[in-house]
Amino acid sequence: TNIVPAADGTPVQGDLLEAAASPLAMSLQDFVAEFGDELLDSLNRANPPVYTSQARPHRQLVLASLKRKLFGAQAEVVHAVTELLADRGERAAIVNGEMGCGKTTVGIA
């Protein structure tokens, strides 16, 4: 089938443009290499992280008093989720991880 462009020559939805068709075309890898730092800065300004690995001392004491000690990564998740739920007032948090990584232990902590 032949695809007929719009009367003004602009591509119609669904048309594929070859990379050589536009002098402004660049690969995603090149785009991220060129603009990645600025994109990350903009993203962090628009959506600041909830937890930045600065654990609160009183929460460290609570975790230290648990009968089952957490691994470092598990403790970081507990701090992040607690920051989200207790300090930011969110109603829920999702803890995602592979089988056997301690999600249940993190949830209990």
TrEMBL record:
<protein>
    <submittedName>
        <fullName>Uncharacterized protein</fullName>
    </submittedName>
</protein>
<dbReference type="InterPro" id="IPR027417">
    <property type="entry name" value="P-loop_NTPase"/>
</dbReference>
